[in-house]
């Protein structure tokens, strides 16, 4: 962990107060998010994701990349004398390796006021011209002007939108059907405040309502509110799927998928325990290759439909979900299957393969070559 990391109120949260450590951290995530899209493409080739799912995942990953870009602008001058105390990025060094949840909450608040801030700031060209004049005329480093420009760039990133927010409300993708049965993919995402990680949900459902769900002014807001209220990492997929199935008689969830992006491990920045920490310590990887990113994919699928009585004469469909049949784990996990993957550069992978720690045989390894090519092992 960088020597200049400042302890926060909790031992597992630190502030990156060193300028170069902070910039290396953001550069690391810029590379990692770039690789994630390539990993998704490999997963599509392996039939783990279909085309629609990959498009949705790519959009969320790009949103994560934009969020890191905005935060990198916000903290571009951290540790420098900018004339005011602006703090430093708070990151979770013990659990996730990602920024803490509060960083995204503050960013969302800043986004609401970005337009007002930009109106009261000189434009970028003016700030750059003033910097040149100070360097030539006063022969001093224009730190305060650099800070002003970095904040302008931060608010401009927020104004562009398409970031990964603390809450990303549900959206619908039509898949098939025009009559009494319409099939949609519904997706939403949150930044899990308990573990400080992006979490993405994908649900395939059938809609038998009189009005298509996307145009239903009553059901659609209710569905959105219901799902966001259930978007908690501690809830089992079975609980979430049954909740939507029982709350709406004309919505039939056929498959629910949850993707946990992270944790990110880095010998230089994080202090997680376990085999990956030892692998990264022994790898002695050069700058830019000292990392590993975990990726957990939980899937719950409906195996059949049963009918139950509703009212005096009616019946409604209810889904019966398939749980993991191995060793009774389905009851514990609430999922049909859970797959774990890890994405890492070649040097750490070589050490991981040599050490072969217990529990990693069933983990899919996506290895990034120095040229950026992604291979699955």
Written account of the structure:
This protein is α+β, with helices and mostly antiparallel strands. The protein has 2 domains: 5-160, no CATH class; 167-376, no CATH class. It has 11 helices and 12 strands. The chain has helices at residues 19-45, 51-74, 101-112, 114-119, 124-138, 143-160, 219-229, 237-247, 275-283, 329-333, 346-355, and strands at 5-7, 13-16, 89-92, 167-176, 182-192, 197-207, 251-265, 292-310, 314-322, 337-345, 364-368, 374-376. Strands 4, 5, 6, 7, 8, 9, 10, 11 and 12 form a 9-stranded mixed β-sheet that branches. A 3-stranded antiparallel β-sheet has the order 1-2-3. A hairpin with a 4-residue loop joins β5 and β6. α1 runs antiparallel to α2 and α2 (51-74) packs antiparallel against α6. The longest helix is centred in the N-terminal third of the chain and has 27 residues, at 19-45. The protein is globular, with a radius of gyration of 24 Å. The protein starts with a strand and ends with a strand.
């Amino acid at each position: 962990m960088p020597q200049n990391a400042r302890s926060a109120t909790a031992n597992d949260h630190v502030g990156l107060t060193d300028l170069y450590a902070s910039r290396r951290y953001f550069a690391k995530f810029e590379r990692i998010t770039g690789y994630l899209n390539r990993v998704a493409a490999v997963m599509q080739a392996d039939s783990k994701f279909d085309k629609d799912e990959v498009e949705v995942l790519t959009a969320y990953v790009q949103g994560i990349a934009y969020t890191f870009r905005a935060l990198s602008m916000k903290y571009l001058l951290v540790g420098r004398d900018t004339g005011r105390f602006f703090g430093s990025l708070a990151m979770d060094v013990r659990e996730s390796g990602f920024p803490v949840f509060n960083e995204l909450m503050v960013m969302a608040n800043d986004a609401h006021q970005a337009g007002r801030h930009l109106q009261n700031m000189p434009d970028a060209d003016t700030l750059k011209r003033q910097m040149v004049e100070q360097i030539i005329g006063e022969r001093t480093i224009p730190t305060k002007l650099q800070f002003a420009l970095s904040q302008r760039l931060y608010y401009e990133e927020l104004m562009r939108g398409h970031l990964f927010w603390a809450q990303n409300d549900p959206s619908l993708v039509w898949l098939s059907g025009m009559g009494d049965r319409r099939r949609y993919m519904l997706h939403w995402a949150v930044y899990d405040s308990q573990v400080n990680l992006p979490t993405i949900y994908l649900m395939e459902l059938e809609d038998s309502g009189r009005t298509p769900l996307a145009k239903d002014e009553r059901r659609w807001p209710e569905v959105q509110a219901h799902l966001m209220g259930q978007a908690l990492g501690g809830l089992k997929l079975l609980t979430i799927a049954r909740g939507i199935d029982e709350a709406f008689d004309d919505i039939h969830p056929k498959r629910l998928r949850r993707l946990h992006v992270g944790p990110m491990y880095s010998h230089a920045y994080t202090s997680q325990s376990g085999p990956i920490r030892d692998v990264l310590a022994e790898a002695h990887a050069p700058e830019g290759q000292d990392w590993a990113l975990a990726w957990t994919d939980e899937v719950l699928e409906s195996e059949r439909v049963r009918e139950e009585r509703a009212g005096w004469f009616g019946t409604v469909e209810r889904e019966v979900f398939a749980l993991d049949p191995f060793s009774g784990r389905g009851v514990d996990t609430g999922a049909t299957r859970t797959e774990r993957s890890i994405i890492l550069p070649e040097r750490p992978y070589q050490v991981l393969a040599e050490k072969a720690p217990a529990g990693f045989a069933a983990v899919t390894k996506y290895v990034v070559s120095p040229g950026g090519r992604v291979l699955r092992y």
